[in-house]
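To start, one record:
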Amino acid sequence: MKKILAGILLCIGLTACAGPLSQFNFTAVELQRSPDFTHLNLEEGKVAILNAVAADIFHEYRRVLGDSFSKALHDIYPDIPQIPPQETLSLLNGTDLADEYTEMVRIYEISGILRKKNQQKIGRALGVHYLIQVSLLQYSQDTATRFSFLGIRFLQTRSSFLRVFAQIWDVSSGAIVWEGSSSATVAGEDVREKPIPFEEVATRAWQELLKKLP
């Protein structure tokens, strides 16, 4: 019994020292793109990232989702000038366009449309040619015990599933010039009570999606 317990503790110690083993699986799809539109258009015309849209149950992740998109965009296309979500909100409030923005988002949540007149006012105020709207479609976490001894859980598999969506709108025409969706499944084995960070999963999902942008 002592040898068994010692062996268990040794294995656990080695696992803890090695850190968690994570597996990432991604699926990214370009859903729509206007002819001749590429990331070079974004380099020539500055972009503003709007605050993320999500169902009420995912409300707490909205800021992180927008920030993770901004980070991923900088990582994949560092030459694209961008206004991150929180800065976008601050600038809109400072130019007395808070009501205009709120109306635009409210209509978007109902119809899936960013009204052209709202886009143009916001675009002029921010000095941008494109608006990027990101959305959280699905997020779930699960924990499964891989090994337990005498009722004590030593090794667990934690998994997270995430599905996100992004649209790029041209403020001059009011049209969607690009949109895509990305899903990520992340599984990690660890002896510690440490969940897989949402930001890490979201950033990786956005990076894979942005690679689809030609």
Remarks:
- Residues 2-18 form the longest helix (17 residues).
- Residues 21-85+128-210 form a domain with the Rossmann fold fold (CATH 3.40.50).
- Helices lie at 2-18, 39-44, 62-76, 85-94, 98-111, 116-126, 198-210.
- The chain has seven helices and seven strands.
